Amino acid sequence: MITIGIDPHKSSHTAVAVDAAGHQRAQRRFVVNAGTVRQLMRWCEKWPARRFAVEGAKGLGRSLAQQLAAAGEHVVDVPTLSARARLLATGGDRKTDAADALHVAQVALFRHDLRKVKVEDQSTILRLLTERHDDLVNERTPIISRLHAVLRGPAARRRAGEGRSPCSRKSRR
């Protein structure tokens, strides 16, 4: 069985495949776009006996983990690893996405108490979308208020006689 550890980010996902002994067999970086999961599945076709370990499957890796689970793949959630744990594991301070993905795979390989990712139902997805919509509305309101103040500012000052040079006021008298 091959375990594929994934270190997800907003713009890319790094995947590392390890064998049953925890030795790295392959690695690849995927740019996040509409075809990311399809590319990942094509890359790992050579390992029919596989499982995925996604770091932060409840956070940044949620979308990828859900898509893999919906495709019928076995996916486990590896809680976000602390920088200190990585430092102790590597014996150095170099942090790379590939090293993180390797650690995710190795943690999944040797820990059997990790949460299996289950496909979320439609009500959960709608709740998440509603929360995101509310967040965007809450961000939009102060931005609109600031824009309104900026656009209204010069016109309001002109009506009140502010913003003119003292010479222009004298010449009008």
Automatic annotation (TrEMBL):
Residue ranges of every copy of the Transposase IS110-like N-terminal domain listed in the record: 4-152
Region of interest: Disordered: 154-173
Entry protein name: Transposase
Organism name: Streptomyces kaempferi
